Amino acid sequence: MTDRDPGAISRVRRTSARVRVGAIPALVGALLVAGLLSEGRADQRPLADHAVVLLYHHVAEDTPASTSVTPQRFEAHLDWLAAEGYEVRPLLELLDTLRAGEAVRERSVAITFDDAWVSVHDTAAPLLAERGWPFTVFVNTDAVDAGEGPVMSWGQLRELAEAGAVLESHSASHGHLAGPITAAAAAAIGRRTRTSRRFRRRPAPCN
Questions:
Q1: The domain 8-201 is classified under which CATH number: 3.10.129.10, 3.30.2130.10, 3.20.20.370, 3.60.15.10?
Q2: What is the pTM of this model?
């Protein structure tokens, strides 16, 4: 969701994003779901083979427009969800429901953030906390270790986790592995998988 198109918040009512459970890899499948909402109807039965996820990156005015939404627009999105009766649910709860072959309730949506940008901590999290809404942050750990760009520190990530946010792995280096699986790519996948497992097991460092 970005701030480029002023009409985006109205068009989400006309567009749905559906993803088959079988197409969702265990770790990164949730990142592949496009975050657009469909207009619910009283005669429309819930479908067990899809879910809706709103995916954000930056919530700021001084970051790249292609991956950013302003704080004002983000708050307008949240206001719209509340006014239209949408229920913001934990991402893992939605995925568990789909994997079990159960029906996802109408007007259910999850909110996620990629890359652990600091604006999630400073701006988005307080707005979501006001509403008591859950959210998930996907963290690429190398950038956090290096303090690369406007990313959160481990301490800030720990603060979010202690407040109820869910932290998941977005790989170590955020590399793009869409091409052929070479020996180097296989080694990189192995390293990222090991990092992901350590990240999920251990608490975030305190620095």
A1: 3.20.20.370
A2: 0.68
